[in-house]
Amino acid sequence: MPDREVCPQTLLLKGGLKVSKIIDKVMGVIGFEVEDGETEDRLESQMEDSDRIRRQKKANLLSLPTQRPVTMMLIKAKSFDEVESVAQNIKERRPVIVNFDEADKDTAQRMVDFLSGSVFALDGSVQKVAAGTFLFATCNVDVVGQINEEDREKAFFKGFSWTKK
């Protein structure tokens, strides 16, 4: 079978802006007449308008802050009754620092266990800040740094089974 030569007049150029004379005649017979000059000008102006609008939209973009300021809660826990309000703050994605100095050992252990579970459920982290003081942070807060091992050994909760390695 011989190779066919493609006539350059039958090709569509630049998204259909130029149409061959044969296609124009066929379209005219069907009832769809194409007016070369007006159609091309109209299509080009529409493309220019859409490009201009697209550039304007990009120019008007502003970066908006995605997060509101984080409020840190400081709580001095005395009884297990307070653990629900602390957990509610954690649930609302507020980091909480809790001081357990005034709570008895068993109650403090139960509270830390409960709050650790709450933070774990929200993909957060727990970090011991000082003797008897813990930071409960949710996943929206990055906690950087660490208390050294000497401070941990001197901690108030040193004798508790849940703080031993």
Overview of this structure, please?
- This protein is an alpha+beta fold and 165 residues long.
- It has five helices and four strands, in the order ααβαβαββα.
- It has a four-stranded mixed beta sheet.
- Helix 3 packs parallel to helix 4.
- The protein starts with 20 loop residues before the first helix and ends in a 12-residue tail after the last helix.
- One of its GO terms (biological process) is FtsZ-dependent cytokinesis.
Task: Please write out the topology.
Elements: H1 21-30, H2 36-59, E1 73-76, H3 83-91, E2 96-99, H4 105-121, E3 125-130, E4 133-137, H5 149-153
Subcellular location: Cytoplasm
Organism: Formimonas warabiya
Keywords: Cell cycle, Cell division, Cytoplasm, Septation
Compose a concise summary of this entry:
With 165 residues, this protein is of the alpha+beta class. The protein is built from 5 helices and 4 strands, in the order ααβαβαββα.
Average pLDDT, rounded to a whole number, is 73
Count of runs of 4 or more consecutive helical residues: 5
* Whole-angstrom Rg: 36 Å
At CATH level 2, the architecture of the largest domain is: 2-Layer Sandwich
CATH class of the largest domain: Alpha Beta
Q: Which regions contain 5 or more consecutive residues with pLDDT less than 50?
A: none
Relative strand content: 5-15%
The description of the largest β-sheet is: 4 strands, mixed
Helix share, percent: 25-40%
Q: Tell me, briefly, the overall form.
A: rod-shaped
Quaternary assembly: single chain
The CATH topology assignment of the largest domain is Translation Initiation Factor IF3
Pfam family, one: SepF
InterPro entries: Cell_div_SepF, Cell_div_SepF/SepF-rel, SepF-like_sf
Keywords: Cell cycle, Cell division, Cytoplasm, Septation
GO cellular component, one term: cytoplasm
